[in-house]
Amino acid sequence: MAKRKLPAGKTKKPAVAKKAASNKRAVDKASPDKPDLAEVRAQIDGLDRQIQQLIAERAQWAHQVGKAKGKLAAAVDYYRPEREAQVLRRVVDRNEGPLGDETLVRLFREIMSACLAQQEPLKIGYLGPEGTFSQQAVHKHFGHSAKGLPLASIEEVFQEVAAKHADFGVVPVENSGQGTIQSTLDMFLTSPLMICGEVELRVHQHLLSRTGRIEDIERVYSHPMSLAQCSGWLRQNLPRAEKIAVSSNAEAARRARNADDAAAIAGETAAHVYGLKTIAGPIEDRSDNTTRFLVLGRELFPPSGHDRTSLLVFIRDRPGALYGVLEPLARRGISMNRIESRPAHGGLWQYAFFIDVAGHVDESPLRDALAEVGENAGDVRVLGSYPVAVL
């Protein structure tokens, strides 16, 4: 069969709609008690061909987008996070089941990831080694067609993106139960990088070991935050085991694979990567355990329609200074999601405030509020305006 040529105008939606209607009629005609298996499989095979054909057509149109933009320097120049967020929100808005929103978003993310990789795969730095939750966040946000670059520390992720050795970076910034990762915030005090996205990842912790027997365990390795997230379970089930903090959960898994009396707390991905068996899981103390990650880049992107802005505000040392910063936001009805202070590194007892607010810096009312905030603060730096995480 000859390949269908890329249409010069719109795709042939009516033909696809007619086929879908025909498939629906065939399903409706089937007996509700016992449908004919051969007919059902034939319908699925036909749908698979249509899906594959439409994905190929989408990839061709994505290639046309690259041509329309002209010759650009690298894959990073083709990537537009605000556009991806808009596409994924429409996926959620259209969804009528039976598949859940999260499943459909994941499928469309992978399609977009593969289409973008036609130009060149994005290079994404993350806190490694392989098998960390940071790597899972990379896959959730950029899809599996992006090239992950495992790095030794959060500081190194910042450095590699700033040096253009990585197109973007993904770093953890806060956990729903344990709070903020201070080392990430501190990097923004000196780094020129921008925040251009966020990822919310449900984190499920598992106890892993080489033997798979809990009675063998005398010590448990994990990242300090993961040990804290599972402290209740550990007190109840391994009260005598030594708890040893390491740089990452993947590093914990790497150590645990070398001894029968050692275990690691990590995700299931780490078990597959390092050949460990699951003793128990999930073992986190809170069922809603979620970590928020930031996507680091080198530029500010346009509004997506549902955005968040992160600010770094240096306060003048005078009465009511913080009120003068927050009041213009409140007066304009701008929601503040988070505020946290950190030593400013510019002088003794001087502090900077990290503030997350709703909206994009290029749009009112936030744009107008920030102009007034600047009059009351020593300095205001926009760390980034970026799409709110889509699931």
From TrEMBL:
Pathway: Amino-acid biosynthesis; L-phenylalanine biosynthesis; phenylpyruvate from prephenate: step 1/1; Metabolic intermediate biosynthesis; prephenate biosynthesis; prephenate from chorismate: step 1/1. Residues 1-16 have a biased composition (Basic residues). It is found in: Cytoplasm. Residues 1-35 are annotated as: Disordered. NCBIfam families: CM_P2, PRK11898.1. Residues 31-123 form the Chorismate mutase domain. Residues 25-35 have a biased composition (Basic and acidic residues). It holds the Pfam family ACT. It catalyses: prephenate + H(+) = 3-phenylpyruvate + CO2 + H2O; chorismate = prephenate. PROSITE patterns: ACT, CHORISMATE_MUT_2, PREPHENATE_DEHYDR_1, PREPHENATE_DEHYDR_3. The lineage of its organism: Bacteria, Pseudomonadati, Pseudomonadota, Gammaproteobacteria, Lysobacterales. PANTHER family: PREPHENATE DEHYDRATASE P PROTEIN (PTHR21022), PREPHENATE DEHYDRATASE-RELATED (PTHR21022:SF19). One of its GO terms (molecular function) is prephenate dehydratase activity. This is Bifunctional chorismate mutase/prephenate dehydratase. Residues 310-385 form the ACT domain. Residues 123-298 form the Prephenate dehydratase domain. Keywords: Amino-acid biosynthesis, Aromatic amino acid biosynthesis, Coiled coil, Cytoplasm, Isomerase, Lyase, Multifunctional enzyme, Phenylalanine biosynthesis. The gene is pheA. Catalyzes the Claisen rearrangement of chorismate to prephenate and the decarboxylation/dehydration of prephenate to phenylpyruvate. SUPFAM superfamilies: ACT-like, Chorismate mutase II, Periplasmic binding protein-like II. Its EC number is 4.2.1.51, 5.4.99.5. Residues 37-64 form a coiled coil.
